[in-house]
Each structure stands twice: as C-alpha cells, then as structure tokens.
Amino acid sequence: MKTIASWYVTIRFVLSYLFYKLGIGSVLDPNPRFDSFQFVIGQFTHWNRYIRVRGAENVAADHPAIYCGNHIKFGDPFYVFHGVYLSTDKSVKLHAMSRNDFFEGTPLKTRFFDADEFIVTVGVHGISRDAVTLAQMKPFINLLIEGESFIMFPGRTRSRSGLLMEYRDNFVEPGSVSFFLNTAQRRKKDTTFSAIPVSRNYNPARDHTCMIYGPEQFLTSGASREATGFGILR
Fold first, then answer.
1. DSSP labels for 113-157?
2. Which residue from 3, 95, 103, 118 has the least number of CB within 10 angstroms?
3. Where are the domains of the chain?
C-alpha cells in the first residue's frame, strides 16, 4: 500500500510540473510530499532495503549547516539528504547546490520538461561551473539566514561521464564553504552556523552504503571576509 501511495504522490507532483510548463496551474508544494519522494527514490537506490548512518549525533537538527564532502558517485546528494532525513526523524529537508547546466544536451532538457528547472522545485539551486558570480551565491546565504541547510561539494564534482574534474577549488570568485558561513554569520550574529563534513562509504559488491557525518566545524572568531578556505574553521 505504501508503494502505491508513494508512487501516486510522486507522479502527481511530476504531472503538476508538466502542466505548469503548458501554462496550466502551478507546481505543487513538495514539502509535505518528501516522505513519498524518498520512498520512490529508495526503490532505485535500494536504501529502502539497506543504509547505515554513522555520526548521526553530529547532524545539525536545530540550526543551519552546510553538509560538504567529495562527490564520488552520481547518487551522493540523494544519500546525503536521506541520511540527514533519517537522523533528524524526517524533520530536516536539505537544499542542495548543483551545476545549473547539469542536464544540458540530454533528453531531459526540452521545451516541455527541463530537468534543471524541475530540480529547483524540490530545493536544488543552480550555480555556474565556469563563472561563479555573487548573484548565484546569494540564494545560499539567504537559505542559511532563514534557518535552512544545504549540500555542496566544494572540492571536486562528478561529471555525467564519470570523470572527476576541478570545480570550486581555488577559484578566484568566492564560493567556498567558509565564505557562506562567514557571510551568514556577519548578517545574523545571534545564530549558530556550521559545516559538517560528509563521507559516503560504498560497497559495490553488495551495493551497500554507509553515510558518515563528521563533527561540526565552526568559523573562528573574527575570521576575515577574504578567508575562503577550511583553514579558518575550528
């Protein structure tokens, strides 16, 4: 029964987006539907059957945080989200940072269905891989100020071809983890902001995943605006 109900809710949400693209109605609110989304995705990722979470006590349930790690497999963002979702008894729904052209040149980028636009409806925000701008940074800073958390992979990212490429490491433009923490902290001094390192341990032989959440890291007092690396975290 749960399978049928979850698929019904998910398909109805996708259809609301398709009708929206045709100029009919608006996209449904995803927030009350995340449990169904997670179950449907879990049928493809197998986390309905098996997933372990280590360091659940490190997950921030009462203040905004950035969950960051190395992107090694296509499904990593889904697993980071799901691990936090389980660890907080389904109370924290993470946003995510993604390339704004990830689906460019694929069948999922058409007039009637734009996957890059669709994922925005469920909390994914796009950012340019080649030319990061301050305007693209603002939504993430606002998320933190509003008490929301998000996922980002600051060192390297995984392309559709499976190759690892440099992403925001050593970019001249701001965009590192501590840039977001620093800016949010300056704007809302009475709020706790943290970075939480994440690692996915994957066993390909058994198709099992263990999500590991490390101890929270915080900006040191008086960190300079120019500092954009993990070196100023304590």
1. -BHHHHGGGGTEEEE-SS---HHHHHHHHHHHHTT--EEE--SEE
2. 3
3. 1-45, 49-232
Helices then strands, each counted (H, E), the chain = 6, 9
* 175, HSE (Cβ side, Cα atoms, 13 Å): 25
Q: How far is CA 128 from the centre of its chain?
A: 15
d(CA 45, CA 57): 24
The pLDDT tens digits along the chain (234 residues) read 889 999 999 999 999 999 999 999 999 999 899 999 999 998 888 888 888 999 999 999 999 999 988 787 888 899 999 999 999 999 999 999 988 887 888 888 888 898 889 999 999 988 887 777 788 889 999 999 999 999 998 754 444 444 444 444 444 334 578 888 888 988 998 889 999 999 888 888 888 899 999 999 987 655 555 544 444 343
